[in-house]
Design goal:
By secondary structure, the chain is mainly α. The chain is built from 8 helices and no strands.
Length: 226
Amino acid sequence: MNEIFTFLGVISENHTYLLVAHTILVAILVLIFARAATTAMQIVPRGAQNVAEAYLGGVIDMGREVIGEKNARKYLPLVATIGLVVFVANVIGIFPGFESPTGNINFTLALALIVFIYYNFEGIRKNGVINYFKHFMGPEPLLAPLMFPIEIVSHLSRIISLSFRLFGNIKGDDLFLAVILMLAPFVAPLAPFALLTFSALLQTFIFMILTYVYLAGAVSLHEESL
């Protein structure tokens, strides 16, 4: 959306530059929040520490039903970090003068590849190469020649699902906001901003819960209970 004014676009309107610059801005904002939450920590949390502890507790609760308490805590750093990055990247585009990095397919594809590579790595590391790929063949040996390629395609489609779902929704939100601001630049109603904030939260939640689901499917192949 180079036709829309952005503060960082004053330096250059190059599309790649804008993506990288806003991605760096998102990383800086996440690091500032993390720094504020872990500086001068107190037994009774206040301010940023209180928000961070509530967030981390919510992420663990989210994963507990999917992958179990132990694994939810084990993969907390990955899922919580992805959640922060995706949420900030989603929300930043709501503010006029900024663009959402998640409105670019390259950004969401990179996140999807991180999740895809990591959950497959964890599945192989925990179950072994043979056992991990064995479950791709289905319960019946006779169906293995049919099931294996289907499972491979199914897993590869997760990259498309993760990346295009997030990209499509946030890109649509950006276009919607652009229209609103062009029609009413000074008196833009609050309802669209509330709707876009809810959408940013929802897309963040979906990305996080799917990460937990994919991890659960990879590492819990032979666990009777979590």
